[in-house]
Structure formats: structure tokens, C-alpha cells
Design brief:
Elements (H helix, E strand, L loop, with lengths): L1 E3 L5 H10 L5 H18 L5 E7 L2 E10 L6 E9 L8 H15 L4 E7 L5 H9 L3 E11 L2 E9 L3
Parallel strand pairs: 4-5
Antiparallel strand pairs: 1-2, 2-3, 3-4, 5-7, 6-7
The structure holds coenzyme A.
The site of coenzyme A has 19 residues, from strand 4, helix 3 and helix 4.
């Protein structure tokens, strides 16, 4: 089941995101702040976070929002699935849920930023598999040797 993210999900979401092993400690700290701000104010401003749950267990989440000062562009800021449950279709369902909701909200194009590091190779393959184009690379953006890779998908003609 995919449902709106609740404040009570935060500890499980931080734990499963940390447990994927691909995020740095400061990114987990940032996620804690993002979720707090989301429940406090950003949900009312149009940000969206959804949680994948099965039999009461939190399996993953996706966080997406409109890009300010654009004509209906959106960002997927976060997507993560519990490591023990990878490659079972949970991330695909979350991404497709986000795309459907963004389309319903008249979203035009969805952008995703990720890292060029080898630890993100399966993640990059995941976006390519879902029809995203690799549209840009910002060399050394995150750190020397760690570039930003930008993916994008048009959600309506
Ligand atoms: C990327 C992620 C959300 C995908 O979710 P998922 O439930 O594992 O993915 P699905 O089962 O729906 O899709 C599997 C496909 O995704 C890719 N993939 C991504 N991560 C994978 C993993 N750890 N194991 C296997 N396949 C993975 C493969 O291309 C696979 O397709 P294939 O089976 O044809 O090779 C998840 O693996 C994850 O949380 N990764 C770590 C966090 C992360 O990178 N988040 C995005 C930051 S930008």
C-alpha cells in the first residue's frame, strides 16, 4: 500500500534510508529536517511525500515537489526502499505513483538529481529503466570526482 507519509514514519524512514548505505550522514540529517519541515509547512505548500507500507512495516518512501519559478516542472527529491526489499518492484511502484500524482497536478516534466559515483550505478539504471533521459552532468558538483547526474522525464506531451 502507498499512503501519505505520516509524522510517525520519520524514525523508520531515517533508519531505512541510512541502511541503504548510499547516503552520507549529513544527507540523513538533511532528510530529518526535510521531513520535519514537510509536516510543519511544506505539505501545505504543495510538497508531497508518500510511504510504502506492507502489514504495518514501512518499506520505502518518495518525496517530490514543484520546482518554484517554473512552468509546472517538478523535482523528485528523495526515493528510498529498505535494502532487504530492493529489486522487488517497490521503488517502481513509488516512482509510478509519484509520476501519476504529478500528472494529475498538471506537472509537465520531472527532474531527478543523483550522483555519478559507482555506488549509484543501480540507481541510475533504475531511472533509465523508467524512461528517464540523462540530460546533464555537473562535474565535481558534490565533491571532486563526484558529479551530479540529472535525469528528466516529460510527463505530458
Ligand atoms: C533506487 C531504488 C529506490 C529502487 O527501488 P527498488 O525497489 O530496489 O527497485 P525496483 O525493484 O522497482 O526496480 C529494480 C530495478 O532498479 C534497478 N535497481 C536499483 N537499485 C537496485 C538494487 N539495489 N538491486 C537491484 N536492482 C536495483 C535495476 O535496474 C532493477 O532493474 P532490473 O531488475 O531489470 O535490473 C532502491 O534500490 C534504493 O533505495 N536505492 C538506494 C537509495 C537510492 O539510491 N535512492 C535514490 C537516490 S537519487
Amino acid at each position: 500500500m502507498i499512503r501519505p507519509t505520516a509524522p510517525a514514519d520519520t524514525p523508520a524512514l531515517l533508519e531505512l534510508t541510512r541502511d541503504t548505505g548510499v547516503f552520507k550522514p549529513h544527507e540523513i540529517q538533511a532528510l530529518d529536517e526535510v521531513l520535519a519541515d514537510y509536516h510543519l509547512a511544506n505539505h501545505a505548500l504543495g510538497h508531497r511525500s508518500v510511504t510504502s507500507e506492507d502489514a504495518g512495516a514501512v518499506l520505502g518512501f518518495a518525496y517530490y515537489a514543484p520546482a518554484s519559478m517554473t512552468d509546472c516542472s517538478w523535482y523528485l527529491y528523495w526515493i528510498a526502499v529498505r535494502k532487504a526489499q530492493h529489486a522487488r518492484g517497490i521503488g517502481s511502484k513509488l516512482l509510478e505513483f509519484a509520476e501519476d500524482e504529478i500528472r494529475r497536478r498538471n506537472g509537465r516534466v520531472l527532474f531527478i538529481e543523483t550522483s555519478s559515483m559507482p555506488s549509484y550505478e543501480l540507481t541510475r539504471r533504475f531511472y533509465l529503466k523508467h524512461g528517464y533521459d540523462q540530460t546533464a552532468t555537473l562535474p565535481d558538483f558534490y565533491a571532486d570526482g563526484d558529479s551530479m547526474v540529472v535525469f528528466c522525464k516529460r510527463l505530458r506531451p
